[in-house]
Design a protein that fits this description.
32% strand; mainly beta; 3 helices; globular; 6-stranded antiparallel barrel
Amino acid sequence: MNMDISMRAIAHIQSEFPTKFGVPRQSGLVPSLESTVVFTPEFRNSDALRGIEGFSHLWLIWVFDRSARETWSPTVRPPRLGGNQRMGIFATRSPFRPNPIGLSCVELAGIETTPTWGTVLRVRGADLADGSPILDIKPYIPYADSHPGALEGFASVPAEALEVVIPPDLLQQIPSQRLEALRGVLAQDPRPRYQEDPQRVYGFGFAGMEIKFSVSGQRLTVLAINSSR
């Protein structure tokens, strides 16, 4: 049996992250982070969204296009375990998969009709880099999708949020409508999990800004903000 399956993107996301560095490691960790789902011309049909307003949350099925590889490994080193232990690829959410498919649960914040892209979806809590292709959208159904007693394996303990320090002069450079989301992203610690050098300066793009920061213990300090536009 030929199991080769071809798919096409129905949409892509517009998010605050030009690269994958800085993107939250899971969906929903930064609820204030807002993105826009823009449909490809073929699927810009408002009838395809009829009834979606009745759901508060959606599943996005998308492609790790920044992480696609020609080969795959049956084991990976999860950052949660310090990068020192190997786990089976199907026991992790690593982006380096045989098929680089992501699954994210997001909050539906609104539906808008635009002159350029037709009907778009505003969503909150997405963990996708800007431009990531979306293969499908499905409604989140609490009675079927929520399992409060489910086991969480090695990912059962959430990472402790960092204290975020932004000096007043830098605070003035951040648009007020982006501040809460940026604080949330920084509190989740964008660094690779196993890097602990307090002298190292990290940087990532966010909403047209280049954010430079360092981390010492549980405190993250923003050092500089430059325009990346």
